[in-house]
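Changelog note: in this version the structure field was regenerated for every chain. One regenerated record is shown below for reference.
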Amino acid sequence: MLEKPGIADSEIVACVQGAFGLQVDEMSFLPLGADGHTAVYQLIAQDEKPYFLKLRSGPFKESSVALPHFLHAQGIQELIPPQPTKNGALWADLEEYKVMLYPFIDGHDAYDVPLTDEQWRQFGKALRRVHTAVLTSSLAAAIPAETYSPKFRELVKEFMLDIQERPFTEPVAQKMAAFLNERRDVVARLVARTEQLVEIVQERPSPNVLCHSDIHAWNLLISQDGALYLVDWDDPILAPKERDLMFIGAGLGGIWHTPREMGLFYEGYGRTEVDRDILAYYRCERIIQDIAAYCEQIFLSDEGGADREEAWHNVASNFSPGSTIDLAFAT
């Protein structure tokens, strides 16, 4: 979220102090991320120790905090566990928000700071450990399994019909509608290809493993001393391993698409059979999910400020030559 949410800092501080027993001296909003449901802050405690605070509105999955807490306890040090409240819970409630507290890691994401060779290998090793993790029965039951839902494909079809006739007055919505109308054939081809692939992959089911589901460069945090962390566990899923592996080579954000990078990653991940059809399905489906989510954000509301312009740029970037759509078609 790039725009500060409409909740007073004093209310947030009172919640943190009451629920976590943390005396807060300073709090700063951090304009980070493309998720309009998530706001993040840096806190400085009385002992000058920094913390990372996350406010999540909308749908909330307990597994988003329980899972990294569990995996870190199992020895996967590339995860940042949430700090428990005074009552031992992993989050607190504040109006419509769930409030999570973490130690603050001073660093940059892997989009701003390219991974070194050794960090690529470490990334591969860490993700392999996630994919081979053995969950408790209660935690496994709380994580959804892949269904290959047509939800986002249907949403994109509906939006593409709607923007043909519907007039827009808000500037970003006008720009987005014009852009997508000009690329109507590409969007239709993307949807059709995804629907072809989903029929193929459902005919030969692949084993489900624990997947992060959104492990792109913005969700890899590199600390100042070079440590690597897999962050943002909002939507874990039990799915074929290609659900995560598709990001290595997908070109999201214009990076992570060279043979050398992929080679280094798999040196760490280890030998494995990768199903190209499942990989292609996930690369196409991810673009469709993004288009659908950003269309909802842009066309169903005029709110959002700077987040709206960011959403428009995120959609447009998929259509650049050699970007995610071209790479998905080529998979």
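Spot check on this record: The first helix runs from residue 9 to 20. The mean pLDDT is 93.
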